[in-house]
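Weekend entry, working from home. Most of the wet-lab plans are on hold until the incubator is repaired, so I used the time to fold the two sequences that have been sitting in the queue since the last round of cloning. Logging both here for the record. First:
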Amino acid sequence: MKVPGHYPYAGEVRLNATGTKGYLTTNSGTVQVFDATTNTMTTAIPAAHPESLAFSPDGSKVYILSYDGITVVDAMTDTIIDAWDLPEYDESVILNIDPTGNYGYLASPRKHLLQVIDLRTGSIVGTLALGGPPGSITLTEDGRTLYVTDGYNDRINVVDTATLSITMRFSVRTGWQFLLSKAEGRAFIADPSQSRINVVDLTTNALICSHAFFPLHLNSPGRMSLSPDGKKLYVVQNSHPNDKITVIPLPQERNVTFPDAPAGTQFEREIRWMGNAGIATGYSDGNYRPLEPVRRDAMAAFLYRFLGSPDFQPPTTSPFVDVKPGDQFYKEITWLASEGISTGWPDGTYRPLAEIKRDAMAAFMFRSLPSTNNFQEPASSPFADVRTTDQFYREMALMSALDVTNGWPDGTFRPLQPVNRDAMAAFLFRLAPSAATNIIR
């Protein structure tokens, strides 16, 4: 859907409670209203330099935040019913409203502040110093917690609204906006500088995947909004020469725990992330079996899901003599072959039930990553038991360079030792920031 405005402006899009009507800020001095069922623009509401939109809890009002004021709009008629000047609080760019409808939260990047505004009087009644410029603020449905991005320091501030204090900070690459999923277990973070939306699991505070916009630097995400049912993500996409709105279907959200990997288990966070990201489903008894070696068929499944379960039609004739249609993970194994990630053995076998060795694991990961052709392996090995002439030396060296693994405490990599399932979770967890999935054009 093409929208008014010009590249590289990033407006904000919000849908009403029924999902039938949307509002979009533009740099042409208006908020554009569109019919979300037909994707056509219907009305233009005048607003000087609109930055952010917020609905009252009952959906009857739309608040339009500009640098120096707030315009209040009747959501039924899309007409202006009130306006407040806030000249002393210039450059507040994000507005969120609490569940009571009495208070709003303003992010002021220039002043590195979070401010609380009384929507009954238009006065500021609370201020919190953040220690960095807020990029966006997101309020949980119960109104108790705010997530405030700090792109300068690449972190998320978690704020308790009752005390107006920071209760936790966690590091994650941040960007234009932080948006909670419907169940509030995931966050979508728009990162225009990298032309992608990062999806973060908030139970582990870790990256699950990225939605990348292609071609890079000509297409980048701006503000985002969820559909009322939480199944679609609406993204204002800066796409040369015209801006547009892109709709991304969202998979079902997971919150997985494995009985045999409880809190305190080594790599428990990474194993839980594997389940939440849909990379590992565990066994029929519900367990993960962290100390079992990874088989080569499971490795194919892990990588396929790690890279976003790409659309792939498996061949009717297998590329491997010991893998046939109907076998478990046939699709994933043949996808691995089609991508050149695995060529199998010289005798034409894949050996799906064989345990995967640590050097082969490094090779699979190396081939699954973009832009590895430019990697120059070091002249001296980072591992005591790996020589520069060894098979897969370059691949193992990259794993060290990316901090995916630093080997064992004695400085060895142990390339011919099988990879256990807990270590596999740790390797993929650390590799995640290096991989982008779900390319959007």
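Second, folded right after the first finished:
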Amino acid sequence: MEAVTSNDALVRHEAFLAGADALRAQGDLTGALARYRAADDLLRALADGDGVPSRAHVVLACTQQRISEVLTARGDLAAALEALRAELALRRRIAGADTGDAQAREHVARVAARVAEVLVLRSAIATFQGGGERGAPATHRRPGEASWNLSAVAGALETQGDLGGALALYREGLAIRRRLAAQDPDNVARAYDVSWSLTGLGGALMLRRDLDGALACFGEALAIRRALAARDPDNARRRLDVSWSLMATGDALADKGDHAGALAALREALAIRCTLADADPGNDGLRCDAALSLTRIADVLVASGDRAGALAAYREGRMVVQALVTRVPARAEWHEDLTAIDAWIAELTQAA
């Protein structure tokens, strides 16, 4: 590589990034990736030669982020994980050079969580491609199959040695975000960041079948979100986030066999979603969320032996999805959801 000054390299790097961003916006992921990598090569020698983190390290971290996003979009999760780990190393180095930089520490927490998510995603894909429920709608789980799915994913993670790594990364991010929130207790964004880290950690603990640990995480996240929603009761986004924490809590309780507790959480989530959907008639996403709550409730009712209640919940969910299909016929995933619910109703009807 020809010798260039730091400023020259940064200017040329920005030109590479601008060109790559334009290609990415046009859908040319291959061309964008090539330019992002060229931009990375341009600055890497310069950054590696610096003993102290500099502007070059920050720019390199941003470039690795873009590379990982493009690789993820292309489905190359192994290479995306490599880019994310490179970004995480840079973010840790930057944050370590200035412990008072809250934004730098938040970047570490964010990237650590993303690495953990990709570790879980890779194993989940490998597991389901090896015989899992590839044909099932992504938004629904068949009654009785949730525990098997979680065990299969967890088994793949344990075999690859990645589940422990994912948990460690989630915990690293959570610890950073707890410290940042403690330093700025009135900062709503910081509090929300803690709730997201708790939710990610709880999900990873579910994979390990540490249901008590998962419930503790989901419960703390729920408490944070309830408090934030109470401070701004007209904020629909905050109330919807409460419903997602309730859904996670319900799933964990159901896996523990606490059907009454699970139903209470899931029904509260449903009530929130129905209220939000009624207040925003044009929001199909909220109606889809309500249908998901109804099918989860039906799943738990099946497990508890209440077939009549389960049928009623499935049928109510079917009505919601049918209305969505009628409203937007082109959405293939809603047709798939409708087919799945019909199959579940048929199974229960025949069993009766």
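Plan for Monday: verify the second prediction. The two ends are 74 Å apart (CA to CA).
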